[in-house]
Each structure stands twice: as structure tokens, then as C-alpha cells.
Write a structure and sequence with these properties.
The chain is mainly beta. The chain has one domain (about 10-100). It contains 1 helix and 5 strands. A hairpin with a 3-residue loop joins strand 3 (about 70-75) and strand 4. The longest helix has 6 residues, at about 10-15.
Amino acid sequence: MARRPGPHPRTVTERRLDPSLEQGQPALGQIVLYRCKEGDDTPELVPFPLSPGMDVFAAIVARVHGRGLVDLMVVDPSKGPMPRWKVPYSNELKAGHWTERDEA
């Protein structure tokens, strides 16, 4: 399959080597935090439910769409990876959004 024209997605290594990259600019393979939104833990509403009672999950960036939108594989310890598509970035702690981990 031919790759669409455009900039090559940044990798986690490139982000580590270039500290000038802004927050909210995701990299493939980056580990981020995903905050649940209402309905994420309801099997009837979402085809891939998350564990009830948990609000924040680690997630791996599987695809970068641009403008802060990413496809995530949310790591649910009780069920394994759960996909979430076109999840937006937020500087604030907002449900249904991803944020960067504080690595300090």
C-alpha cells in the first residue's frame, strides 16, 4: 500500500532527541494518559468497554492524524489493549482526551 504524501510521523526517539517539540505533538509509540469519558465503561454503548471505576489509563499512540488527534491503544490491566479512535489532546484533565505523562 502506498503511503500518503505528507510529513513523516515523529517517533518517540526523535521527540527525546529534540526537546524543542511542543507538548501535544504526539509521536508514534509514545505512552500517554487517556482519561475516560462517560460511557467508556458501559458495554451497551461502546464496543470496547474499559474497566469500571478507573478514570485514567496508560495508552500507546498507534496513529497520528494531526492537530493533536491520535488513535490510541488504551492499556486496560484487566482486559488488555482497547482501541480509541481520533482522541483529541488537552492541556487540561478532560474526559475523553489524552495528555502527556509527567516524566519528571
